[in-house]
Each structure stands twice: as C-alpha cells, then as structure tokens.
# Entry
Amino acid sequence: MNKKVLIRTYGCQMNEYDSELITGILTTAGYGVVTDPMDADIVMLNTCAVRENANRRVYGKIHDIRHKHPGRPVIGILGCIATNLKNKLLEDKHLKIDFIAGPDSYKRLPEIIQQACKTHNKIADITFSKIETYEDIVPERVEGVNAWVAVMRGCDNFCTFCVVPYTRGRERSRSVKNILNEVKQIAREGFPQVTLLGQNVNSYHDNSRDFADLLAEASKIEAIKRIRFMSPHPKDFSNKLIDVIANNPKVCKHIHLPLQSGNTRVLALMNRTYTKKGFLDLVDRIREACPDVVLTTDIIVGFPTETDNEFNDTVDVLKKIEFDSAFIFKYSQREGTIAAKKYPDDVPEEKKTARTVLLNELMQQTALKKNQAMISQTCEILIEREGNNRSENGWAGRTNGNKLVLIPDGDYKISQLVNVKITEATPHLLRGIPKS
Ligand code: 5AD
Ligand code: SF4
# Structure
C-alpha cells in the first residue's frame, strides 16, 4: 500500500508554494497526501527560520505530533529551518527527527523518505543549488481564488538581520517562457488571480527582460483577472515597474514595500542600501503615478544600537507615508547572520516591546483613517470565501488593493467579481453592500 504523507506548512507564502511543489513531487512518486495526522506514515513540517518564534512553534508541533500519534511516524523537517539549524535538529534527542531537507532538495524527497523509512538512519540533505528553480515540477495547488508562482528563488541582498540568503541560497530566476506557461495552466484550472513570489521579486530577470516585462506579459493571459506580487525591495523599484503597476489594469494596486527602519544610520547597519529620504522619495514617485495605491510594510524595532531618537525616525516615516497596514517585528538575532556576528543584541526587551506597542497603536489609527476614507466609495471585490471569521453569514472578498471586505449573504460564488459600496470600516476590514 502507498505510504501516506502529511505536510504542515508554517511561515511565508514561498513556503506555501513550496509545499504545493512538494505535494506535486510526492504524489507523482506515488505517495498519498493526507491532512489528518492519524492517517500519516510520514509527517513533514515545512517551516520558517526568519523570526525566532517560528522555531519555537516547530518544537511545540513536533511534541504535539509525537504525543497524539498512535504509532511512530517518520518525521521530517523541511524549509529554511532545516538549513538554518541543520544538525542541531537531527541530534536533538527529544525531537527524534528522521530527516531534514532544505529548499533546494525537494526533488530528492521520495528517495530520502524511502531511505528514512527503510533504514531508520538519520538523513540530511541541505545542499544548495545555484540553478534549481523547480521549473519542471507541477505544483498541486490548494483550491481557491489565488495561485502562487515563485518566479525567482534565493536572495543575494544580505540584509544583516536576515537568514534567507543562508537558508535559501543564491538568487536565481526562472525563464519568462516557463513562468507564462505555468500562469496559462493556472488560468485553465480556473484561478482568477496569480501572485508572483520571490524573496526579492523585483530583481527578477531573464536576460534582458525584467520584472516589469514579466508583469506586462502575464497580464496578457486572458482568464487571469488579477496579478499580485510579493515582496519587492525598494532598491529595485524602477520607474518602469511603477509605470506597469499604475497603468496595467490587471496588476493590483497594492505594494508591500518593506521599510524595516526609518533611520538612515540603522538602514546602513541593516545593509538595506537606501536612506530615509530615498524611501520617502520612492513613495512619492509611486503615489504620483498611482495615487490610489495601497501601501503596506514590514518594520523591525530594536535593531542593535537603535536609539530612541533613531526609532523616532521610523515613527516619523510611518506618519508621513501613512501605510495602510504594517507588520511590526522585534529584532531577533538569527544565527549565522552578519548582524549576529557584528552587533550585540543590545536593545533591552522592554524597549523593543514599548516600541512595538507604540507603532502598533499608531498603525491602528492610520489603518482606521485609511479605511474610513473608503466609506461611500464603490470597489470591485473578488469573492474569496463564504462566511467570515466570526461565522456570520455572508461573503468575504478583497479589493484590488487587497483590503478585506465583508458583504451580506446573497447569490454569489467564489471567484466572482462584485461591485460593492463600502459602508463601514474598522482598522482591519471593510463592510459593504453590493451595487446592482
Ligand atoms: N528579526 C526580526 N524580524 C525579521 N525579519 C526578517 N529577519 C528578522 C529578524 N532577524 C522580518 C523583516 C522582513 C520580514 C519577512 O521578517 O521585517 O521583511
Ligand atoms: Fe532577507 Fe533582505 Fe533578502 Fe528580504 S531582501 S530575503 S530581508 S536578505
């Protein structure tokens, strides 16, 4: 009988996509993929190492699986955490992990799993490839409105706080032709939306063709209604890219633009390669071309040596730009990074907490103001699901700018585009009524 595998995914969208690739690889190799741990012979956790609490969560999950599972499933760890923690994971006597496989080793998984089941030897494959892009793998996608497509993998930026260049290796892009074939297939499968993914998505290139060209080409595929992308780096935001976002109706007017810090000295220590002024100028350029763009960001507070005054620059930039929303992270020292080697983690935890609270409060106000400004406007939403988080009746969809909108019950279906008049706003969502 075919062995059954359960894959649990944590972390970013790239991990979600990778799990779809892994599912494709394993089902082709004859494995059954299940969702209930009780049915699984093999359990794999595809995890993230970017922020520390993700690591802790994995340790918790493994204990949980061991506790609940009646037999002893073979357990594997995949993703960034595998390359980041390597032997620490395998040698941990409590975890009892059987194999680890890094982001460039997924094609070898059928072989690795077979060996782990047969020999009960511990196996690790975390070698990096300069070329692996999984171009030839057909991902097995989760049904819904959105299909992820990784257009490039790895990262060469070496932001000093970040493990990704060490856990996912060097940057490499797929060919335009291969990506467009995948998007055409996605369209045939009925997904109305595609999200192009990359650790530094706008440094994508295929010979002379860049990310702006790729967006323009993808938008020509008829059945695709919306194209999103994640995450760009400010340093690679060309006017040509801004032009495509502003003028191509299928390219969504939402840019997740990680700021990290508003202070030029801290940005230099982070190796972000832009200044406070450079970032503000970029946002001016974007807004000039595309006034209704929705901007969101990531912030790290308490990077080593960040003073109160320097933190105030971040507050200043958030007040000036008025992002629609922001993820605020406390700096967490990650093993192997440049910051971990060069700078002691010297901002006290209480200061990190106080700075996080202050920014979250500021962002609540800004997000509410931004959302309230949409009241009475009419937006086109793409219906994503029935019901909403509080199990109220109705439907939930997203605007072109990626804002969640709840509408009352009615005769709709998933993937339908509906015009909605916004009637209510909170910092996190909008409510509206369909316009006939
Ligand atoms: N500590 C805190 N936040 C981090 N991020 C990446 N590395 C760290 C770290 N060491 C955040 C950044 C990035 C997001 C994906 O995670 O803000 O944009
Ligand atoms: Fe990490 Fe910087 Fe690369 Fe983003 S651009 S993945 S933060 S190194």
The first strand starts at residue 4 and ends at 9. Residues 349-372 form the longest helix (24 residues). The chain has four domains: 4-125, 143-252, 253-373, 378-434. Residues 143-252 form a domain with the Transcription Regulator spoIIAA fold (CATH 3.30.750.210).
